[in-house]
Amino acid sequence: MNAEYMKEESGANVHVRRAIAYTVLVVISFLCLFWFYILIINATRSKGELTQGFIPFPSSHLLDNWKGLISGTLPVWKGLRNSLGIALCSAALSTYFSAMTAYAIHVYDFKLKKFMFTFILMIMMIPTQVTALGFLQLIGKMKLDDSFIPLIIPSIAAPAVFFYMKQYMESTLPMALVEAARIDGAGEFRTFNGIVIPLMKPAIAVQAIFTFVASWNNYFTPALVLHTDTKKTLPILIAQLRSADWLKFDMGQVYVMIAFSIFPVVVMYLILSKYIVAGVALGSVKG
Amino acid sequence: MKKKALSLILCSAVVAGSLAGCGGSSAPAADGPVADAGPEGKTLNIYCWNEEFKSRLTDHYPGYVVVDGTHGTIGDVNVVWNITPSDDNAYQKNLDENLLKQDGAAADDRIDMFLVEADYALKYVDTPYTMSVADLGITEAELANQYQYTKDVMTDSSGVLKGLSWQGCPGVLIYNREAAEAVLGSQEPADVQEFVKDWATWNDTADKMKAAGYNMVATVNDAYRVYSNNVSGKWVQDGKIVIDKNVEQWVKDSKALVDKGETTTAELWSDDWSKGFYPDGKVFCYFGPAWLINFSMAADVEGSIANQGGWGAVEGPQGFFWGGTWICGATGTDNPLLVADIMRQLTTNEQIMADIVKKDSDFVNNKAAMEAAATKDEYAFAVLGGQNPLSMFCAGAGKIDLSNQSEYDQGCNEEFQHAMKNYFDGNAATYEDALALFYQGVKEKYPELSY
Amino acid sequence: MKKAKRSKIVSYNKWGYIFLIPFVVVYLVFQLIPLFSTIYNSFFENYRSGLKQIGPNFVGFENYRTILTNGDLLTYTKNTLIMWGLGVVPQIIISLLLGAWFTDPSLRLKFQRFFKTVIYLPNLIMASAFSMLFFTLFADSGPINSILMQMGIISQPYTFMSHVWSVRFLVAFLNFIMWFGNTTILLMAGMMGIDISLFEAAQVDGARAGQVFFRITVPLLKPILVYVFVTSLIGGLQMFDVPQILTDGTGDPMRSSMTLIMYLNKHLYSKNFGMGGALSVFLFIITGILSMIVYRFATGKKED
How far is CA B116 from the centre of its chain? Predict the structure, then answer.
């Protein structure tokens, strides 16, 4: 097959392929956005209307639901603040220290290197459900009940984030760069913070989003650790709204609260996604 | 969602006047806050899963002062609310861990009081972790006006009463008047009751309804609690799982209904369950207490049956209850006097009971108060087309017999309904197959049981 | 790695240990102790019935024997792998396809920014909120059934939650929707590292899209692809929240959608650390073996 022939074929096909690509992308975008549409629609319906089942048009109770939620006893804004604080800290600690751990394994050569790598990979295979109850007893013994610390600090040891950083370094971090920095007399910490971290930006952005979202949506551990209303995170408050007594129970408010709690994380995602999306877009424009 | 904490509305009518006759006379047994009366602790820890009890205490307990969402004071005692939602069983997990630590905990960290629901009440009641109501100084005479079933729920295996409630949640059969008129020839409660007076008649009526295009009930799960509230023995006897005759009857009846297309196997609270709230849903009846009628049947939506006052209430085949919250004193509390006083005030003080009816529309746990209300016209329910069902609720509450509850109820009832759904849907070939699945599920939850 | 003077290497390499300190310390404190107690507990009869503690009584390998002999382990492993496969195969295909399209210079797709942004959005919705929407959509009286009936495909409402394969497909579908954006983003971030001139050179040489993809993109993406395969396998074997919420923890019909972790969760109801521990050890072994196979297959070598 010669080059001429292949070029012709690809030229003839490009329109067809583009059409297919657009069709698939439109279908997929619909599948992605549709859920937000129903969530918002449901947030505009009163609890009575919600018993009618799915109706694709909005109703008029969005403000009522929102006012009901805000005037209720749940500290919605404090919940937002707590969720934001915990998720941001977890994302920052998790990405920074995982990059550091990955750097240690990737760049240095030491006796326990192979062991540590295998060991961390094995940790990843342990289901979290198993250790959760032991973890809670430990928290109780350490007097960290009703505190943010057990929700934030453990994210420093995140095997999956580490593994990604390690793989990313393998494909993008040349050793020559590190050595050049050393020749320039930079200390190891400065090399890591000043050269490696900026290079890792896309990977950090990706894992920061993932960690942020995971922490934002986490219900299991926070529900068992946090007890003071003003310390609770949004998923706990949503669950509390759902287990309300009958006088107060209102699915309309639950939907408003869900929509409310998704909003900040969407914003956070749009900010961080620039690092990923813009980079790839830049590449294709050049092409 | 079905295990939600429940509150109970009477109706939107104002109630205070009618209850004034029976209230007002009995002042709080102990004057004001009792905290100074002995070497009581300075912190009262209350464990619960929603805001219901907090708002009752805030609104009705004399001397309670709000500090913030989870703190308050009574006299010089700090009240600390530990609220964990019930989703994913989080409430019980948290409560269990802390109750087990109770002995070693500092006085101010100990749980003083916690709340439970009926289907897991005995898990706590039948242990030394709950205090006997008598030991708290509350006498049987003080509780004479409470419905017996609310005490049955809280009575341990040796007959000791361990907790109290301010609510009653007796249920009735709620029927679609239009369907009754069209199929049974009358929509009057007295006539309709004849068609649903026992399960055999009920099943015959289901055939008639089917012929006219109506499902008898929205789902088989509607009737489950009616059957299971009326069992003649406990789920577990001498460490062995026993299937009660009445529960077996539910399986037989339900399988027949499903096979004939007279009902579905949908979950309660699902869209397929609530579609019968509207005329097009074509459902003849629901089983529920007053809170369901008033709060959950879409009375505010135009076109719903409730909105048009199109429901009627009758006693139905058997008495049952649905919902309710009970207060327990935790063993080891350093505030026994305050705990006792809160229980006494909120569940026996007739003035407070009347206030709760007025402010929170609860069906309160007080026979005299409710029977007085049953005779008043202002308690007519708009959603029931002006019928006053309170006498029916009162009669129902008196008939419920819960002496056959056991600590395994929550697990067994859940597993049984789930397993039988497979049988009704035809996924389990036989009843025995579904039963095997049930036993397996129960063994996983309670490994010490046999069958 | 280049070899410099030995003393120099050693002085640098101590930094390897230093950089590992935060991870190791946090791990030891918060996770290792619970982990050891998990394994230790698997040799005991140790559970709670209500508030009564039963055990711990040493039973040796009794818990392991119970799990191996009742055959459940195999069933639930099969269920898990089926639902994982149903979700992960389209997930990886779509992710690769999107990745290829977005990086293909000849396509010049417009609105890329928009498409790249929306794919991850479903992951922002909590699984519990998602399942509320699914119940509404797939109810007997819901919109999916009425559409199918209007199109004449079915005459009676189809009870999605009462049929083995429809439940499995719904679980897989929900997992797919929630996670394919995640995979695509991982791949795209990896693709950033690829020098764009390679694509241009290939185009000049007249390479077809398929060739560019398999000869350039895939080999350069290999470390990230390995990551995607391994983590999605591990994540798949630990599949829990979606089937748990969609089936209310039952794994019905007849436990055909019960996954390994849902089964484990059943034992945690009674705080059955004995059975739970033994089950975890099995799970760990299964995951380990499968991951090792995937890892070696994908890298074509032993791990370094």
Answer: 11
Model confidence pLDDT, tens digit, residues A7-37 = 445 555 788 989 999 999 999 999 999 999 9
B369-416 residue pLDDT tens: 888 888 887 778 888 988 888 888 988 888 888 888 888 999 999 999
In a shared domain, residues A98 and A216: yes
CB pair distance less than 8 Å for C109 and A138: no
Partners of A49 on chain B (C-beta within 8 Å) are 298, 301
Q: Do B87 and A227 touch (CB under 8 A)?
A: no
Mark whether B63 and B132 lie in a shared domain.
yes
Residues C280-298: b if buried by 16+ CB within 10 A, e if exposed = bbbbbebbeebbeebbeeb
CB within 8 A of B24, min separation 6: which ones? B350, B351, B354
CB within 8 Å: A223 and B84: yes
d(CA B421, CA C253): 8
Q: Do A48 and B93 touch (CB under 8 A)?
A: no
Q: Compute the distance between CA of residue B43 and CA of residue B219 in angstroms, rounded to an integer.
A: 47
Number of domains in chain A: 2
Find the residue in A nearest to C2 (Cα): A175
Domain at A188, CATH number: 1.10.3720.10
CATH code of the domain made up of C71-299? 1.10.3720.10
Mean pLDDT of chain A: 85
Chains touching chain A through at least 3 C-beta pairs below 8 angstroms are: B, C
Residue pair C84/C242 in contact (Cβ under 8 Å)? The answer is no
- pLDDT band of C300, cuts 50, 70, 90: low
Residue B300 is nearest to which of A48, A242, A249, comparing CB atoms?
A48
- Average of per-residue pLDDT across A122-129: 78
Predicted local confidence at residue A175, as pLDDT:
86
Residue, of B35 and B171, whose pLDDT is higher: B171
Please answer yes or no on whether C124 and A206 come within 8 Å at the CB atom: no
Collapsing DSSP to helix, strand or coil, B139 comes out as: coil
C125 in contact with A, Cβ within 8 Å: yes
Q: Count how many Cα atoms sit within 13 Å of the Cα of residue C140 in the half-sphere of its side chain.
A: 20
Q: Look at residue C207 and give its three-state secondary structure.
A: coil
Cross-chain residue pair C16–A105, CB shorter than 8 Å: yes
Residue-level pLDDT at A4 = 44
Question: In chain C, which among 72-111 make CB contacts under 8 A with chain A?
Answer: 94, 97-98, 101-109, 111
Kindly state whether residues B45 and B128 are assigned to the same domain.
yes
How much is the average pLDDT of C149-167?
A: 92
Chain A residue nearest residue C14, CA to CA: A110
Q: Which DSSP letter does residue B378 get?
A: G
Determine contact: B432 vs chain C, CB below 8 A. no
Residue-number span of the structural domain to which A176 is assigned: 65-286
- The answer to whether residue B413 neighbours chain C at the CB level (below 8 Å) is no
Give the residue, A277 or C209, on which the prediction is more confident: C209
Using the beta-carbon criterion (under 8 Å), do A280 and C192 form an inter-chain contact? yes
What is this structure's pTM? 0.88
Cα four-point dihedral sign C279, C284, C290, C291: positive
